[in-house]
């Protein structure tokens, strides 16, 4: 099955300042790149540092033999650690002295928090944004039905629906409003009522390392929770997975990722042509040229509308760097 993984801005790369001192005491790069000297003492320090981290933090399992040699297990462990900690775009398999991978390896291990537990602290914020979006859809419907009388708040909500979905271009406006209403009501059910809201979110399984902020399977909310309903990494189709990178986000960014992923999650599953996918992102070229139907089935359009309706237009570049 297809899954959707939120990766922030994608093209951005975080690097530490050049020339920073090596915290592990490395004398040269370690890894599989051509510039890697792989001095045995350096390699042993890297292996020892990797072994300090738990599997859920990207540490190797089983633990590496601290041999001082870059074997296949060590090179794979380096890439996996980078992917888990920084994302796939920053996983080049090389540890440069003073750069971000070496800095993280020299930092504290065992500090990973339970992201599902953290999500519970953000549920009230997410619920408020979803509730406001539902209210905006209702007010927009009133404006549509009473065009001559529409003014103030209802007209403002209609304008937001036009901005994000080009709702006025549809021949079946009422149907599209019902569709959007259903998506947001399903989100509310998913995160606002027990038991679903308390078990939807899980930490990314230790063996998985997508390098994303969060990911889920399209329509996963409608699937059964069973051992058989998962892939070879133990990733069940019926949960939203939160990755270590989520710990870096502020409350609005955390909530934005959740609404984006919830849109995928509560929509139809991936064998349905009406599923919610990623046709475009507001910060990327082409977003403003999406057709109306694509907008109402685009996760980022749904999240953008929700935050705009709440009076907090969301600018990804300000939150994901």
Number of helices: 11
Uncertain spans? 11-19
What's the Cα radius of gyration? 22 Å
**What's the CATH superfamily of the largest domain, by name?**
Collagenase (Catalytic Domain)
Quote the CATH topology of the largest domain: Collagenase (Catalytic Domain)
Element string (H = helix, E = strand): EEHHEHHHHHEEEHHHH
What is shown here, in short?
The chain is mainly α and 321 residues long. It folds into 2 domains: 15-106, no CATH class; 115-319, Collagenase (Catalytic Domain). The chain has 11 helices and 6 strands.
How would you characterize the overall build of this protein?
The chain has 321 residues and is mainly alpha-helical. The chain folds into two domains: 15-106, no CATH class; 115-319, Collagenase (Catalytic Domain) (3-Layer(aba) Sandwich). The chain contains eleven helices and six strands. It has helices spanning 40-51, 72-86, 100-106, 115-145, 152-165, 173-192, 196-199, 251-266, 292-296, 299-309, 316-319; strands at residues 3-6, 30-31, 94-95, 201-203, 214-217, 240-242. The strands form two sheets. Strands 1-5-6-4 form a four-stranded mixed β-sheet. Strands 2-3 form a two-stranded antiparallel ribbon. The longest helix has 31 residues, at 115-145. Mean pLDDT is 83; it is low at 11-19.
């Amino acid at each position: 099955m297809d899954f959707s993984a939120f990766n922030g801005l994608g093209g951005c790369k975080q690097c530490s300042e050049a020339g920073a001192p090596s915290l592990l005491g490395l004398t040269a790069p370690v890894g599989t790149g051509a510039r890697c000297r792989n001095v045995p003492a350096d390699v042993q320090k890297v292996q020892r540092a990797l072994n300090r981290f738990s599997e859920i933090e990207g540490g190797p399992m089983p633990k590496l033999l601290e041999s001082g040699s870059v074997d296949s297990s060590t090179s794979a462990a380096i890439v996996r650690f980078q992917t888990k900690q920084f994302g796939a775009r920053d996983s080049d398999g090389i540890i440069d002295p003073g750069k971000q991978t070496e800095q993280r390896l020299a930092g504290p291990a065992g500090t990973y928090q339970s992201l599902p537990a953290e999500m519970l602290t953000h549920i009230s914020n997410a619920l408020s944004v979803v509730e406001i979006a539902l209210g905006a859809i209702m007010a927009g419907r009133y404006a549509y039905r009473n065009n001559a009388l529409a003014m103030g708040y209802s007209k403002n909500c209609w304008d937001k629906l036009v901005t994000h979905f080009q709702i006025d271009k549809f021949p079946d406006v009422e149907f599209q409003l019902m569709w959007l209403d259903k998506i947001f009501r399903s989100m509310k059910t998913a995160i606002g009522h027990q038991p679903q809201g308390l078990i939807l979110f899980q930490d990314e399984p230790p063996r998985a390392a997508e390098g994303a902020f969060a990911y889920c399977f399209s329509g996963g909310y409608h699937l059964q929770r069973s051992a058989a309903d998962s892939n070879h990494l133990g990733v069940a189709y019926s949960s939203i997975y939160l990755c270590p990178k989520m710990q870096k986000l502020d409350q609005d960014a955390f909530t934005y990722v959740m609404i984006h992923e919830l849109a995928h999650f509560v929509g139809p599953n991936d064998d349905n042509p009406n599923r919610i996918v990623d046709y475009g992102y507001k910060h990327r070229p082409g977003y403003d040229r999406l057709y109306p139907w694509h907008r109402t089935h685009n996760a980022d359009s749904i999240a953008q509308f929700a935050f705009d309706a709440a009076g907090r237009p969301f600018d990804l570049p300000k939150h994901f760097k």
